[in-house]
Amino acid sequence: MNRTDRLYALVEELRVVAPRPRSGRWLADRFEVSVRTVERDVSALQQAGTPIWAEPGRTGGYCLDPLRTLPPVNFTPPEAVAMAVALEGMAGTPFQQAAQTALRKLVAAMHDSDAAAARHLAARVHLLGWDAALPPVPALIADALSAGRVLRISYQDRDGATTSREVEPLGYVGKPTNWYLVGWCRLRGGVRAFRTDRITSSVVTAEVPAPRALRPEDLDIPYGEVRQLTML
After folding, report:
1. At a CB cut-off of 8 Å and minimum separation 6, what does 148 contact?
2. Which helix (H) or strand (E) holds 88?
3. Do 133 and 141 form a contact (C-beta atoms < 8 A)?
4. Which of 60, 89, 164, 232 minimizes the number of CB atoms within 10 Å of its CB?
């Protein structure tokens, strides 16, 4: 069994018995590898976002959270390539890294033959003029909403003047040319939108602000209609 197949089989083994644990020794015997190899495989899966954790003790082992996993996704090769093309559009957005991780998970969940066919089809697809991507969004800004903490930023306005702000992140606004972090600006005492390429530095503080709602009127932008993202 090659490593890719073993990683898939390891997740499936933990899924079958979840939420009960399997010991590293049991898994090593099951897949005819060393315990050290199992540890490396589990670490690789954790780094890829698979919800596996270790339970200590004599009856402990590795556990998989069954509520945060999905059965194999039966994407066809054209569907997988369509997703890859769509995710190319995430370059320069707060979701670029998440898009790359999602694509890796998608391919890993496909059957080997379908994944190979998808790679073969993708090699025939070429993108012209996609190099002019938006400036990359700093990682701390991209994670602002999920972190849920006050940001301390340095922001340069259109005239080049730089100010220091404490911002409570509320959302993002995206347009073809720029992405904006929307937040409650403590310096201005109101909701403001910060162009991500003008944020020259950012620090995540330890402060968790009180919840604030982002109201529709906060996004009443005179030069364009704002459309909320939906998950179908």
Report:
1. 169, 208
2. helix 77-88
3. no
4. 232
In tens digits, what is the pLDDT along the chain, a chain of 232 residues?
778 778 888 888 888 888 889 999 999 999 989 999 999 999 888 887 788 888 887 778 998 876 665 555 578 889 989 999 888 888 888 888 888 888 887 887 787 788 889 998 988 887 766 655 677 888 889 888 888 899 999 999 999 999 999 999 999 998 878 889 999 999 999 999 999 999 999 999 999 999 998 888 888 776 677 777 765 5
Contacts of 194 (CB under 8 A, 6+ apart): 153, 155, 165, 167, 180, 181, 182, 183
Token look-up 């018995």 returns 17
Strands (E), 108-204: 151-156, 162-174, 179-185, 190-195, 199-204
- Whole-prediction pTM: 0.62
Question: And the tokens for 72?
Answer: 């194999």
Judge whether 107 and 137 are in contact, CB under 8 Å: no
- Show the domains of the chain with their CATH numbers: 3-68 (1.10.10.10), 77-122 (no CATH), 139-219 (2.30.30)
Which one-letter amino acid corresponds to residue 79? E
Q: For helices 35-47 and 3-17, what crossing angle results, to 10°?
A: 80
CA atoms of 71 and 227, how far apart (whole Å): 32
